[in-house]
TrEMBL record:
Source species of the chain: Rhodopirellula baltica SH28
Chief localisation class: membrane
Signal peptide: none
Topological category with respect to the lipid bilayer: Multi-pass membrane protein
Family: Belongs to the sodium:solute symporter (SSF) (TC 2.A.21) family.
CDD domains: SLC5sbd_CHT (cd11474)
Protein name: Na+/solute symporter
GO cellular component labels: plasma membrane
GO molecular function: transmembrane transporter activity
Length: 302
């Protein structure tokens, strides 16, 4: 809660300062409109851009459902109404607050047009450096302090949930079924070990990857999109869904995604959408062919 408060206050303070330095909010918005920065959708004739747009949107919108961003918070709500209201309010807040850092970044361009060269760089990693460079070079010390506080809070808030969620899932759903004799002390030890492993892998990826932060986040969200979304959604709402269908869905989705991601990277349709389609197809076909007993969780009630 404190980290969220620091993030919100920090970004709002920086945005107010940048808006004042740029000549006002209207000046920044008008400049963005004149240069086409407010165009939300690609042009109709650009089919490739549309596929990229749809792939990016579905990856963030649907890929977050099977993980702690959405599903964990929904299942922890006290009742259905709270789960629905909280999810909708959270989504609207995400949409509104996402414009704040974008406004700050473009206000930087209005203040100093030389920063526009970073947006036109062939190396996309230069674009993500625009905001921190501008804040550190063009603002007083107190604004830098507030900005860095918000940045560190965002990193810590994201890292804590992102590391704890998969670690607890692995220990509870993978290790514990094979070690039924585990007591609480042993569970805690395994949790620490898995947490350290995930942290080491994440650190290695961050230090060695040449991708931008957006690309790394998109890859991370692609995993639950192609491997977990279909078994979760279809398993909840389709009576014919089976365990074998879910397993086939996971394997087919992940395998297809990896194949297109690394073997056909220039394919028109994004790899995560191909993986999602393969996951859904495998779930339906294998479940229909499977004669075993269908799985219908009794806990799910409408």
């Amino acid at each position: 809660m404190i980290q969220t408060f620091v993030i919100i206050i920090g970004l709002l303070v920086v945005s107010v300062y940048m808006a004042h330095a740029a000549g006002g909010v209207s000046v920044v918005i008008e400049s963005a409109r004149e240069t086409g920065r407010l165009q939300i959708f690609p042009d109709w004739g650009q089919s490739g851009q549309w596929w990229i747009y749809i792939g990016g949107f579905l990856t963030a919108a649907l890929g977050s459902i099977p993980q702690q961003d959405v599903f964990q918070r929904v299942t922890s709500a006290k009742d259905e109404r709270t789960a629905m209201t909280g999810t909708l309010l959270g989504g609207m807040f995400y949409c509104m607050f996402a414009f704040v850092p974008m406004f700050i970044a473009y206000a930087v361009v209005v203040i100093d047009p030389d920063h526009l060269q970073q947006f036109n760089s062939d190396d996309l990693r230069e674009v993500q450096r625009t905001l921190p460079h501008a804040v550190m070079q063009s603002t007083p010390f107190w604004v830098q302090t507030v900005f860095l506080g918000a940045l560190v809070s965002a990193i810590l808030s994201t890292a804590s949930g992102t590391l704890l969620a998969p670690s607890s899932l692995i220990v509870e759903n993978v290790i514990r079924p094979f070690r039924s004799d585990l007591d609480d002390k042993s569970m805690l030890r395994w949790l620490r070990i898995v947490l350290l492993m995930f942290g080491t892998l994440a650190l290695h990826q961050a230090l060695t990857s040449n991708n931008t932060m957006y690309e790394m986040i998109q890859q991370a969200y692609s995993v639950p999109l192609v491997g977990a979304l279909v078994p979760l959604a279809v398993g909840l709402y389709w009576k014919r869904a089976t365990t074998r269908g879910a397993m086939a869905s996971i394997v087919s989705g992940v395998a297809t995604w990896l194949a297109f991601e690394y073997m056909l990277p220039e394919f028109l349709i994004p790899s995560q959408l191909m993986g999602l389609a393969a996951s859904f197809l495998a779930m339906v076909v294998v479940s229909l062919l499977d004669k075993s007993e269908t799985i219908r969780p009794d806990a799910v009630q409408r």
